C-alpha cells in the first residue's frame, strides 16, 4: 500500500527539483567542478605523453578538451575583434574576472602559446591544479608582493625568447559587483619590462544569467570583446600608472557597452 503512494512522489520529486532554480544552480556548479576535474584526469596523461611534462603547448590539449563544456551549462559566446589577436608577436592579455566560469571564455579564444598568471593556491586544486602546472601557468603568491614581482619579472625576461603570451587578470581577484575593480600594477610592469603590447579583452556581465547570492544559474550568452592592442614600446616604469589608467578606461567603457547590449538581447533580467 505504502509503495503505491510512493510512486507518484518519486515521479514528481525530480520534476520539482529540476524546476527549482536553486537546485539548478547547485547542480550546474557541482557538475562544472566535477566535470573539469574529470577532463583534467583525461588531459594529464595526454599532456605528459605529448610534451613530457610542463609545456605551454599543453594549452592546446586543454583548450580542445574544455571547448564543449559550455553546451552542458547552456552558455554561448559572441566574440568580436578576432583580428586584434592575429599577430605573431607575444603580448600580454588583460581581462576582467567575474568567476571561475571565465575559464570557458578563455578557452573559446585562447591564442596559441598563451598561458596565464594565477594565484599559487590553484596548484592544490586536485587534478585541475596539476593540469594548470602542466599548461605552464605562472603561479604567484599574492601575500608576498616581492615574490610575485620577481616571478613576473622573470616571466617578462623569457616571454620574447620563448614566444610566450600571458593572460593576466589585473583586478587581482574575482569580482561580480558590476564594473571593474581598480587595477593592480603587475600586468603593466610585465608588458613594459618585456616591451610587448597589451591586448585588453572584456567579458560582458554575467549578472543576467549567473547570480551567486540569489543562487541562480540560467542559460545565457556572453559577449567577448577583444580590443585593439596598446603599444608599450619605449615606455618605462614611470609610464605604468598612465598605461594602467588608459587600459582601465577603455575596458570599463567596453564593459558597460557590451553588458547593456547582452542583457537586452537575452531579454529583461529578473534582477
Ligand atoms: C582539460 C581539463 C582542464 C580542466 C580545468 C582547467 C582549465 C583550464 C586551466 C586554466 C585555468 C587558469 C585560470 C587562471 C585563472 C587564475 C586567476 C587568478 O588567480 S587571479 C589572481 C592572481 N592574479 C593576479 O593577482 C594578477 C594581478 N596582480 C598583480 O599584478 C599585482 O600587481 C601583484 C600580485 C604583482 C602585486 O600585488 P599588490 O602588491 O597587491 O599590487 P600593486 O599595488 O599592484 O603593487 C604594489 C607595488 O609594486 C609595484 N609592482 C607591481 N608589480 C611589479 C613588477 N612586476 N615589477 C615592479 N614593480 C611592480 C607596483 O607598481 C606598486 O608600486 P607603486 O609604487 O604603488 O606603483
Ligand atoms: C581536491 C581539491 C578540490 C579543489 C576543488 C577546486 C577545483 C576547481 C575545479 C574546477 C573549476 C575549473 C576552473 C579552474 C580555474 C579557476 C580559476 C579561478 O577562477 O580562480 C579564482 C581566482 O582567480 C581568484 O580567486 P579569489 O576570488 O581572489 O579567491
TrEMBL record:
Residues annotated as domain Phospholipid/glycerol acyltransferase: 91-206
Transmembrane segments: 32-49, 122-140
Pathway listed: Phospholipid metabolism; CDP-diacylglycerol biosynthesis; CDP-diacylglycerol from sn-glycerol 3-phosphate: step 2/3
Provenance organism: Sinocyclocheilus grahami
EC number: 2.3.1.51
Function of the molecule: Converts 1-acyl-sn-glycerol-3-phosphate (lysophosphatidic acid or LPA) into 1,2-diacyl-sn-glycerol-3-phosphate (phosphatidic acid or PA) by incorporating an acyl moiety at the sn-2 position of the glycerol backbone.
Lineage: superkingdom: Eukaryota
GO MF terms held by the record: 1-acylglycerol-3-phosphate O-acyltransferase activity
InterPro entries: AGP_acyltrans (IPR004552), Plipid/glycerol_acylTrfase (IPR002123)
Family: Belongs to the 1-acyl-sn-glycerol-3-phosphate acyltransferase family.
Pfam families associated with the record: Acyltransferase
Alphabetically ordered keywords of this record: Acyltransferase, Lipid biosynthesis, Lipid metabolism, Membrane, Phospholipid biosynthesis, Phospholipid metabolism, Transferase, Transmembrane, Transmembrane helix
Protein name: 1-acyl-sn-glycerol-3-phosphate acyltransferase
Reaction catalysis annotation: 1-eicosanoyl-sn-glycero-3-phosphate + (9Z)-octadecenoyl-CoA = 1-eicosanoyl-2-(9Z)-octadecenoyl-sn-glycero-3-phosphate + CoA; 1-tetradecanoyl-sn-glycerol 3-phosphate + (9Z)-octadecenoyl-CoA = 1-tetradecanoyl-2-(9Z)-octadecenoyl-sn-glycero-3-phosphate + CoA; 1-hexadecanoyl-sn-glycero-3-phosphate + (9Z)-octadecenoyl-CoA = 1-hexadecanoyl-2-(9Z-octadecenoyl)-sn-glycero-3-phosphate + CoA; a 1-acyl-sn-glycero-3-phosphate + an acyl-CoA = a 1,2-diacyl-sn-glycero-3-phosphate + CoA
Domain description: The HXXXXD motif is essential for acyltransferase activity and may constitute the binding site for the phosphate moiety of the glycerol-3-phosphate.
Residues forming coiled coils: none
GO cellular component, one term: endoplasmic reticulum
A Gene Ontology biological process term: phosphatidic acid biosynthetic process
Record carries keyword Cell division: no
